[in-house]
Amino acid sequence: MPPTPTTPDSPPAAAVLPAYCDFTVFGGTGDLALRKLLPALYHRDREGQLPPDHRIVGVSRSPIDTAGYRDLVRTALATHVPAEELEPAAVERLLARLHHLELDAHVPDGWHELHGLLKDRPGADEAVRVYYLAVAPGLFGPTCERLDELGLVDERSRVVMEKPIGHDLASARAVNDAVGRVFAEHQVFRIDHYLGKESVQNLLVTRFANTFLEPLWNSRWVDHVQITVAETVGVGKRGPYYDHAGALRDMVQNHLLQLLCLVAMEPPTYVGRETVRDEKLKVLQALKPLTPADVDRDTVRGAYEGYGEEVGHPGTRTETFVALKAEVQNWRWAGVPFYLRTGKRLDHRASEIVVVFKEPPHAMFPQSEGSTTANRLHILVQPDEGMKLHLTAKEPGPGGIRLRPVSLDLSYATAFPQRSPDAYERLLMDVVRGNPTLFMRRDEVEAAWTWVEPILARWAQRSAELEERPEPYPAGSSGPTAAADLLGRDGRTWQEPDQ
Fold first, then answer.
1. CA–CA separation, 187 and 189 (whole Å)
2. Mean pLDDT over residues 282-288, rounded?
3. What are φ and ψ of residue 477, in 5° steps?
4. For labeling, which of 38, 93, 422, 436 is most exposed (least CB within 10 Å)?
5. Where are the domains of the chain?
6. 61 labelled ligand-binding
7. Where in the numbering of this chain does the Glucose-6-phosphate dehydrogenase C-terminal domain appear (predicted)?
């Protein structure tokens, strides 16, 4: 495994936007490219934040020329960009930057066209080349090898890897090895779009740029932490992939564990390229390893009714819901449970982090009506980004003290009325600038797989020996009843959006 970069002695200088950039998207006609990547690049180009001389090259096996690709992207922008944000001049400017090449990673024919396109341009020797691998992981290695053979990889080149990065630790290492034979670790950007969300990034500012929270951010004052990513949709067109992966691989191993890291990490010396990733790695390494008995007691897997028929596999044992209890075994968090849950076809769409503080140690208002409740900090990741701090207050009026829970709300949409960039917009700009802070490092990915693998192994064992299936739950519900029992055994309940 290539060595992990060391943390510099002093904060790095601010990343500088290059003058020339070629952004090549492998899988350029796929759903991710048309729904997320091209609209994100449109918005950044519209705002004048991309390099003045940049081009976008879509690469796919689709037999279309550049003119056909521009028509395809024009339609995608009209579909995925709000009408009020579509400026004809900006659209035409982006379309003029587009090129398309029909290539196959396993077939050498035609790759010389990509070489000519990237090399035969003004500023080729100074251009930053970004290669976005929006393709299946099995094509990561072959694609990188082709680029290397053509001499299209140099110190200014960067490669972006979409999940899934493997389906277990061994396959993740194989993918990382294949890419690592061509690109050095500092050139590899493993993207997790959750880390690009405004509220997630603001979590670092909330924790480390304000003094009132940090003294309370530990096991002395925090009762427990909940991290929820709930979806109302099913698997949709992702059925073949999802039925192989399941919710644990698709969401917990990356998104939810990354959110856990940002909540639990120690303050870095400064928020920089490697310091944040160093601290996140320490959290993953401090997660309590789960024994088979721990997995049986502290994990729940479910599947919404009708899932098997939806994916054409009625006998499937793939989970669409996961809830689990984790513990970070270090000085700050020992004894504090972290409850994680994610699922599809639930009764609401929400991604949020809830830090529940301990109850007041003494009842100061014995004659009051109502009661004190635990303070809670809700960090709302989506759909409405913001924060809510839940407190207990006195209800106005004479005749005694009546206690009532109230909240102090921060809505990003209200506090900051300007348009907030999409997560992909922010992360793609970080790639162009060469800032890896919000991307996963190889050791992070492998540490996450190391922790998740015992859960997968125990579930597989129980499925084989006991013919155990995920607990069914009705579509549009809050999930399997065992998820509520997981917290109920500890005398706790899940915090729902309307609480």
1. 7
2. 97
3. -105, -175
4. 93
5. 20-190, 195-423+441-488
6. yes
7. 204-495
* Alpha-carbon distances of 205 from 144, 210, 256, 385, rounded to whole Å: 36, 7, 19, 15
Question: Is 255 an active-site residue?
Answer: yes
* 231 annotated as a binding-site residue: yes
Residue 335, CB-side half-sphere exposure with 13 Å CA sphere: 9
What pLDDT shows up at residue 13? Answer: 47
Give Cβ neighbours of residue 229 (< 8 Å, ≥ 6 apart). Answer: 251, 255, 256, 341, 342, 351, 381
Alpha-carbon distances of 467 from 162, 197, 464, rounded to whole Å: 33, 40, 5
CATH number of the 195-423+441-488 domain:
3.30.360.10
What DSSP string describes 260-308? HHHHHPPPPSSS-TTHHHHHHHHHHHHBPPPPHHHHHHHEEEEEETTHH
| CA of residue 10 relative to chain centroid, distance | 28
* DSSP structure class, residue 385: -
Tell me if domain 20-190 and domain 195-423+441-488 are identical in fold. no
Amino acid at site 425: E
Q: What is the pLDDT at residue 152?
A: 94
What does each C-alpha distance from 29 to 60, 82, 150, 280 come to in angstroms?
6, 21, 23, 34
Sign of CA dihedral 168, 169, 175, 178: negative
What is the C-alpha R_g of the chain? 24
Residue whose tokens read 């920089």: 272
Region 120-135: mean pLDDT is: 89
Q: Is 360 left (phi over 0), alpha (psi -120 to 50) or beta?
A: beta
Least confident of 48-52, 164-168, 266-270, 404-408: 404-408
- The fold for domain 20-190 equals Rossmann fold (3.40.50)
Pick the catalytic residue: 255, 313, 348, 378? 255
Residue 145 or 369, more confident: 145
Q: Do the annotations mark residue 163 as ligand-binding?
A: yes
344 is in an annotated binding site: yes
Residue 360 predicted with pLDDT over 90: no
Q: What residue spans of 8-65 are helical by DSSP H?
A: 31-32, 38-46
The phi and psi torsions of 179 (rounded to 5 degrees) equal -70, -40
DSSP class of 35: I
Is the separation of the CB atoms in 327 and 333 below 8 Å? yes
Q: How confident is the model at residue 269 (pLDDT cuts 50, 70, 90)?
A: confident
Task: Please say whether the beta carbons of 302 and 345 come within 8 A.
Answer: no
Scan for tokens 């110190």, then name that residue.
155
